[in-house]
Batch of 2 targets.
Target 1
Amino acid sequence: MEFPVEKLIRAAATAREKAYAPYSNFRVGAALLTGKGHCYTGCNVENVSYGLSCCAERVALFKAVSEGERDFEAIAVTCGTEDYCTPCGACRQVLAEFGTEIKVYMVNCRGEYRVQTVGQLMPALFGGKRE
Ligand code: THU
């Protein structure tokens, strides 16, 4: 990847600082890399009507798609926890719409990561764009 993964992880960590999470106090940041090397970030945005909250990954993806992007290379996700931050099932499904080969960098509080593709994280998904 031309865009270094460390830079993507830093972008996710910076986005996490913007998280609006007064109900769960669980702050998440994501940074999505396009095929052309552009980076779109997102944080979780919660609502007093809890079910209306949106995850960081989907905020990043929806920002990017609304700017005309469709081609994605990788996403980094960080929650600032000891454990690697793994995307929820809903975000996996939404990412899969744009490609099961998208790499997901799941980051812990030390900036270490584990990487898997969306297809690996979401086997036997409903629909989705297959390479
Ligand atoms: N959250 C994310 O932003 N991404 C995920 O993949 C899982 C969960 C958010 C949603 C909610 O604001 C908070 O984390 C606690 O679930």
Target 2
Amino acid sequence: MQILTIQNKPFDQPIYVTRPILPSLDRITEKLREIWDSKWLTNNGPQHCLLENQLKNILKVPYLSLFNNGTIALIIACQSLRLTGEVITTPFTFPATPHVLTWNNIKPIFCDIDPVTMNIDADKIESMITPQTSAILGVHVYGTPCDVVKIQEIADKYGLKVIYDAAHAFGVEIDGMGIGNFGDISMMSFHATKLFHTVEGGALIFKESNLKTRIDFLKNFGIKNEEEVVMPGINGKMNEIQAAIGLVVLDYIEDERNKRKVLVDTYKECLKDVPGIKLLPKDKIFSKSYQYFVIRIEEEMFGRSRNYVYQKLKEYNVFTRKYFSPLCSNYPCYKQLPSASITNLPVANIVAQQVLSLPLYGDLTPDEIEKICSILLEIK
Ligand code: T4K
């Protein structure tokens, strides 16, 4: 057994990067009974319709389509806009983002990221456009919005579509407008690890009514009616149990957000003056989704590398995550692309060595956050 020469004792129970909202089983059973009584388990049932309407209001968007997960939703977003050729995107994201392009036979073109927001650097997009470019696929990383104004200007100038991977951005707004009102389509993930979840699930959100018809055909095999199949669709439907769980989880969101806010404030207070630890800079851009609490460890100043800290924290029963390292551009399936070269992505390659997502979920207490911070200092 390893002997730890440390002051802080490891946590008795593992502390993970996140934990899902778990509503009371009674509330879930109540909902399951409704579903059983209706004998309607999937295919646009009553729970599904209810959730779709509620989310439209909460997210302040005109149109929304539910999906069985965020990745299938994003694949269908590309299909619905008939994207081809090349799409400019970020390497600093979850594998799903570039993979949906590949599944659509589109080449991802990696653009470097902004050193502050860690989102696609809008100033570098224009130089990556070629005659094959059909769209820009930005990611609101950790819920921080991309530079939606500049990206739209570029898209308008070159006649490109804009899709946002808003997997982390539930409830995020810009000047009171739901984040889903920017670009042509945005995708949200409702995976168990997200603030709002339906166990697995996702949604596309958009402003054009004609997209609603097309997207809903695409997620249901292209079926228009019993006699007509109008396009080569797939099965992307959210079922009634997922939708029902989502409806119950919605009641817990505000409380969870408030708890996470207190924890985030505790982290900020404890870590604000630690040399070599960088926080997301301003409240203005700190995500109101409270999806992740991310620090950047600058090895030279902190004295320890991010990888060392990540490993060492495990000895204290703290399981952080390196979202998003390795960069997508360094995966074997993409690293041969010219845009994946380190010289094209200097900022992303540095940031990916620094980021660490610390535990953030409502069941944690401020005392536990203080202890995590104290362990960090001890590791230093
Ligand atoms: N785009 C972006 C930018 C994304 O971040 C994601 C998903 C997508 C697209 C795709 O959306 P979906 O198709 O998933 O809807 C997790 C999630 O599985 C993934 O949805 C999410 N991003 C990603 C950032 O995180 P992993 O591989 O880190 O998950 P996992 O299983 O290691 O879980 C992380 C921690 O969460 C565990 O250590 C403990 C805790 N956990 C997890 C689950 C599943 C629980 O406590 N209970 C649970 O049920 O990817």
